[in-house]
Amino acid sequence: MSAATASTTTSDATERTRALLTTADSGRRRTDRAMQVLIWCAFALAMVPLVWLLWTVTTEGIGRMSIDFLTLSTRNIFGGDPGGGIYHAIMGTLIITGIAAAISVPVGILTAIYLVEYGKGWLARSVTFFVDVMTGIPSIVAGLFAFSLFALFLGPSAQMGMMGAVALSVLMIPVVVRSCEEMLKLVPNELREASYALGVPKWLTIVKVVLRTSVAGLTTGVLLSVARVIGETAPLLVTVGVTDSINFNPFDGRMMTLPVFSYRQYHQGYAPCPAGESASCVADIAFQNAWGAALVLIGIVLLLNLVGRLVNRWFSPKLR
Amino acid sequence: MSITDSPPRAGTRTARRRRSSDRGFNRGFRWIAVGAGVLILVVLAAVALFLLWQAWPALTAGGDELAAEVPRFPADTSFLGYVGPLVFGTLLAAVLALCLAVPVAIGIALFISHYSPRRLSQVLGYLVDLLAAIPSVVYGLWGFLVLAPVLTPFWLWLNENLSWIPLYGGQASTTGRAMATVGVVLAVMILPIITAVSREVFLQTPKLHEEAALALGATRWEVVRTAVLPFGRSGVISAAMLGLGRALGETMAVLMIISPGFSYSLDILAAGQHQTIAAYIAADFPESTGLGINTLIAAGLVLFVITLAVNMTARWIVARRKEFSGAN
Questions:
Q1: Would the CB atoms of B141 and A149 count as touching at under 8 Å?
Q2: Rounded to an integer, what distance in angstroms lies between the CA atom of residue A127 and that of residue A122?
Q3: For the purposes of burial, counting CB atoms within 10 Å of the CB of B197, is it exposed (0-12), middle (13-18) or buried (19 or more)?
Q4: Which residues lie closer than 8 Å to B321 by C-beta, 6 or more apart?
Q5: Closest chain B CA to residue A129
Q6: A111–B307: do the CB atoms touch at under 8 Å?
Q7: What is the largest CA-CA distance in chain A?
Q8: Shortest CB distance from B251 goes to which of A151, A202, A234?
């Protein structure tokens, strides 16, 4: 009696196990599908602002593009006057970012060399740690630092391009160090050892072998870090100020830069036009200018990104 | 190249040789490299010291003195009472952005590391990184002129139907210049950093763990849930904290979108309630003089300390994970 029951339960259990193993588990599969769709959606969601933003900037900014817009400044341009351009801002951005790069690139690459080739012990560990921490410094704080530094020598009312360059290099150095460090680590040790075996001293090995091998990667790192800081607004607003005139001298007086120009125009808002729209007074000219400057800025940033990636793809040695 | 030309004498050979490899250009080059590393530490220390030096007059001045000399300084309060609402606004914006960004960022990171076609994953990574390359002033323009009008009807709807939730209460802004819009824009801006760090961690998941899960009959999601996510948890936490650091210090997008106010209100849909430290400094700095500048720099010092603490915690978690992870 009891034996029979036991055998039926056993066979029931076997049946159930068999059913479990042979039929698909629809619940689990459904979860899997749902999560797959969700994860694809997350990626699509991130692409929405990117495409939307690039589209808006292009369509809004393209109308303002002209030779005049790129070669004139906004000196003596008031109200809704549709004249003037962003030449002064373009030059300011190029000069200030150029100086920042000239400060940051040597310091950044040398620090990366120190970390990869020499770094041992507590000093290397703390440099690595604080470089990482430094990447998180808010840009406005870097601007305040440059302001305080120059206030020590020149008094609190100083505003000039050099201050902006110092602020930008505080932001740029850690980015250069991080990316160059990665690139130097990719150089295989065999190359260094082969060089030592030929009796080449260490410094010459670094200059002629390590840097030569990784030059494409270093270029990429530098270009991407320039792209990172070229759009910084807040530190320049604090240190460099605004001007309507062309100023090529980073040691004397205020300079205009593209992001700050864009912000200033946005800040101006609508211009009061007495007799409605006319050729000499466009009410939303400030917003058009802001979009135009934004388009030029984004163009520069995307170009730097593209060139950076392509340099790495085409010129880096194949290490396989 | 005249470093090894004289043969060392016996006896002093080892000492000689050790020294002879560190002479001339070799030594000079090493010192330059070490100097660059030290310079970075000096710069970071200088940032803290110079900020402290410039902020000191404001930190030591009494509330009355500050109120007399600094425009927009509320009466009957100390420096702490003045910076408090700003800290609150900064934290609110950052936390809001973080809540929106982290789930999406984890999804994108998983997509790139485990779901997308292998050949495409690098290009897709670049696309996400492009979001970080777009200047913040452009985010501000877009957020105010394009995104805010689109989001406003949605905010009004939330305000009308869900106002019993504390966050959605109050008088909703009809222009979208509220903390909620700022949160959305900041979330987009911090997506790339969170994605990049999480992606790195997910890619480090030991292949054996994933294959073991697959061998037990797990579906792809179950592999992610049982092998990838537990392995990457601390990495995701530190990625989120790095994103938090970015959101705390973001200036232009906040400055251009929000209509500022100084309160401890939680109504993220209302205008004129909040302001962040960074945006406040950028807005007031050009018109400030004397003690006003000191006060703004003191506020900047507070921001610096907050972000430094957040970033150091995040990096510490990453570093600790690297040491103890037996997977690599």
A1: no
A2: 8
A3: buried
A4: B234, B235, B238
A5: B315
A6: no
A7: 108
A8: A234
Q: Chain A contacts of B296, Cβ < 8 Å?
A: 144
CA angle B168, B171, B177 (to 5 degrees): 85
Cα-based distances in Å from A187 to A316, B126, B193, B223:
11, 23, 26, 34
- Collapsed DSSP state (helix, strand, coil) of residue A175: helix
A301: tokens are 């940033």
Which of B39, B53, B138 would best serve as a mutation to test chain A binding (most A beta carbons within 10 A)? B138
At A281, is the secondary structure helix, strand, or coil?
Answer: strand
DSSP label at residue B9: P
Please give the Cα distance from A235 to A170 (Å, whole number): 11
Positive or negative, the CA dihedral B300, B306, B309, B313 is: negative
Q: For the whole model, what pTM was predicted?
A: 0.85
Query: How far does the CA of residue A188 sit from the closest CA of chain B (Å)?
Result: 19
CB-based contacts of A39, cutoff 8 Å, min separation 6:
B107, B110, B111, B115
| Residue A263 backbone phi and psi in degrees, to 5 | -65, -45
Task: Tell me the chain B residues in contact with residue A205 when contact means C-beta distances shorter than 8 Å.
Answer: none
Task: Check: CB of residue B117 under 8 Å from CB of residue B207.
Answer: no
Q: How far apart are CA B47 and CA B44, in angstroms?
A: 5
Cβ–Cβ < 8 Å for A163, A148: no
B297–A107 C-beta distance less than 8 A: no
With beta carbons less than 8 A apart as the criterion, state whether B89 and B254 touch: no
Contacts of A156 in chain B (CB under 8 A): 289-290, 293
Angle between helices B291-324 and A139-154 (to 10 degrees): 130
What is the distance between the alpha carbons of residues B218 and A113, in angstroms, rounded to a whole number? 45
Residue A136 contacts B, CB cutoff 8 Å: yes
Closest chain A residue by Cα to residue B278: A140
Distances (CA, A) of A69 to A44, A47, A85, A90, B57: 36, 31, 4, 11, 45
Using the structure block, give the residue that is written with the tokens 């690459």: A109
For residues A172 and A247, the answer to whether their CB atoms sit within 8 Å is no
Considering only the beta carbons, identify the residue of A53, A123, A287 that sits closest to B138: A53
Q: Which residue has the tokens 């900020």?
A: B51
**Chain B CB contacts of A113 below 8 Å:** 33, 36
Give me the tens of pLDDT residue by residue for chain B, a chain 328 residues long: 444 444 444 444 444 445 556 677 888 888 899 999 999 999 999 999 999 998 988 888 877 777 777 777 777 777 888 888 899 999 999 999 999 999 999 999 999 988 888 888 888 888 888 888 889 999 999 999 899 999 989 888 888 888 788 878 777 788 888 889 999 999 999 999 899 889 888 888 888 988 999 898 888 898 998 889 988 888 888 889 888 988 998 888 899 998 888 888 888 888 888 889 999 999 888 888 888 888 899 999 999 999 989 888 888 887 776 655 544 3
The minimum CA-CA distance between B110 and chain A, rounded to whole Å, is 7
Q: Return the closest-CA partner of residue A294 out of A249, A254, A264.
A: A264
Inter-chain CB proximity A141 and B25 less than 8 Å: no
- Measured CA to CA, the distance from residue A258 to residue B171 in angstroms comes to 37
Closest listed residue to residue B299, CA positions, set B253, B265, B259, B248: B248
Quote the CA–CA distance of A242 and B135 in Å, as a whole number.
Answer: 18
